[in-house]
Amino acid sequence: MKGLTLAEKIFTLRLGRRVTAGEIVVAPVDLAMGQDGTSPLAIKAFREMGAKRVFDPRKIVFVIDHIAPSTSEGTSELHNLMREFAGEHGITLYDVGYGICHQILAEEYDRPGMIIVGADSHTCMHGAFGAFATGIGSTELAAVMASGKLWFRVPGTIRVDFSGELPPYLTSKDLALFLAGEIKADGATYKVLEFGGETVRRMSMDSRLTLCNLAVEMGGKCGLVEPDEITEQYLGEEVPDLRADPDAKYEERLEIKVGDLEPMVAKPHAVDNVAAVREVEGVEVDQVFLGSCTNGRLEDLRMAARILKGRKVREGTRMLVIPASRRIMLQAMSEGLIEIFLRAGCIIGSPGCGPCMGGHIGILGPGEVCVSTSNRNFLGRMGSEKAQIYLASPLTAAASAVTGKITDPRDLM
Amino acid sequence: MMGKVWKFGDDINTDLIISGKYKFKTLDMAELAKHAMEALDPDFSKKVRPGDVIVAGKNFGCGSSREQAPLVLKQLGISCIIAKSFARIFYRNCINLGLPAIECPQAYERVEAGDEVQVDISRGKILDLTRGFELEFKPFPDFILSILQDGGLVEQYRKRGGFAWGDIG
Question: Which domains occur in chain B, in start order?
């Protein structure tokens, strides 16, 4: 094959004919996912359609992670609707406490070359495995459950190459926030962000997942990374040779030298409202949240624990730690990370989305300031419309918890 | 479709359209719709009338995949949304619910809040009745137009036992 981007190649291989950006295609879906904020509406639509049977229960996954455990009767009813439908159709449901939908997919389902759709915008994250993965709505999930297929416009691609070695105080979160500041919240709308370059080649899967997770915050349809030996090690199996062609036609190419960058934050109330941590340091912090599908993985917990070890969360500041999955939490326990967090005075939550979307635990009150490792700082996102959310890396979050003020992690490393 | 224009700016995200704190509790859209746009205009749900049209800036509907966002607007009677550009999941959600989402940057420049507009989705035209001018937008591909005309994917499946994109290879 010649002249194809990674996204074009995935569609080309899956459809068995050459397709290029701009073409509208109907493609088979290899995995469809719904969570508790979106599945209930999908179930309702599926039933209203009059559809009888799901196309293949092995290719559908439900996860209860957004409000988990339930905090109200209404939510419990919606959870039960999911359990009932999953039982009726033989769909695997990961119930309360298993973890965040995206983390479960990363741990158990994602493989290079797959076409994955999820009724959750951060589905773009699974592109870290070289799978084409994108977010859809509930009615579309119902349509996929009924037919096993979906229409796509084969997306154009922005290629982003990162070069240089990542210094210990920088993370892939800082790179993604920097990029959001450069191309803005709609800079990649309808497009794929294909990440490459030596920095990405050396990155762990955890870091790549964080990078791809934030693609949607720039409007991206999917964040993609070519699978390689790091993907192989993570999966414990061989991966296919699936790369963009050297002569691929990109809509745009960006090159970013990571050595020039500093720890970044996104200031209230937009992900593209970025600044260096140094520019906002000293802002007093009420709550720190370490977790979410963006930064709740083992590597993130290790980074934060490195800073918190032997230190205390500042009096007057709360730090909430929520591992992205049960598997991660178990490993964090065996590595002693959970003990470090508890001794530092952190609050540990059960695996799930936590306060990321303001549904429960850790809801912000008026005037409160939160440093969060999650993905959105929209007005009112985590509670009060009068609260301020700064998005940052796990290192910056942990450093800020120790001092009670927004702090550049270099000061504590 | 014809109605009065409500105007919003750039990057109106789905949390602003309907906050996450409400959507997990119920599938009752009439109840949820009371909170539509409340952070931007607390009385929006009371003031808006069936047929009304939203005109907005770039990246309308960015953020979450929550279909409750277009659903609450549809519930309030919004007949179409015209924006400089849309976030893609929101855009697809609108189409799938039979709510036309129209990209027309000139509309944001020229149409004012309170104007009466008439929209013809099959011909790709927006008529500003208050100011007396007409704008054009790129017509929808046939299969998308058919979803809109059927009233969304649910209705389309009920009617045809399948989806209009079934013919595309």
Answer: 2-138 (3.20.19.10)
pLDDT in tens, B106-126: 999 999 999 999 999 999 999
- What's the pLDDT tens digit per position in A244-272? 999 999 999 999 999 999 999 999 999 99
From-to residues of CATH 3.30.499.10 in chain A: 6-151, 157-260, 264-408
Residues of chain A in contact with residue B11, where contact means CB-CB under 8 angstroms, are: 185-186, 270
Nearest chain B residue (CA) to A43? B27
The answer to whether B1 and B52 are in contact (CB under 8 A) is no
Task: Enter the tokens of residue A326.
Answer: 């049960």
The answer to whether the complex's ipTM is over 0.90 is yes
Half-sphere exposure (CA, 13 Å, Cβ side) for A351? 29
Strands B116-120 and B2-7: antiparallel
Residues in chain B: 169
Strands (E), A101-213: 115-119, 132-135, 149-153, 157-163, 192-196
Structure confidence by residue, pLDDT tens digits, A383-405: 999 999 999 999 999 999 999 99
Chosen CATH of A157-260 out of 1.10.150.750, 3.30.499.10, 3.40.30.10, 3.30.450.20:
3.30.499.10
CATH number for the region A264-408 comes to: 3.30.499.10
Query: Residue A228 in 3-state DSSP?
Result: coil
Angle between helices A298-308 and A394-403 in degrees, nearest 10: 30
**Inter-chain contact A376–B15, Cβ cutoff 8 Å?**
yes
Substitution target from B10, B12, B15 for chain A, most A beta carbons within 10 A: B15
**Interface touch A25/B168, C-beta < 8 Å:** yes
Helices A205-213 and A298-308: angle between axes, nearest 10 degrees:
100
Position of tokens 């939510």?
A: A75
Closest by Cβ to B24, choosing from A78, A119, A189: A78
Query: What global pTM score does this model have?
Result: 0.96
Q: Which of A133, A93, A120 is nearest to A7 (CA)?
A: A133
Query: What is the CATH architecture of A6-151?
Result: 2-Layer Sandwich (3.30)
Q: Which residues of A touch B21 (CB under 8 A)?
A: 358-359, 363, 380, 383
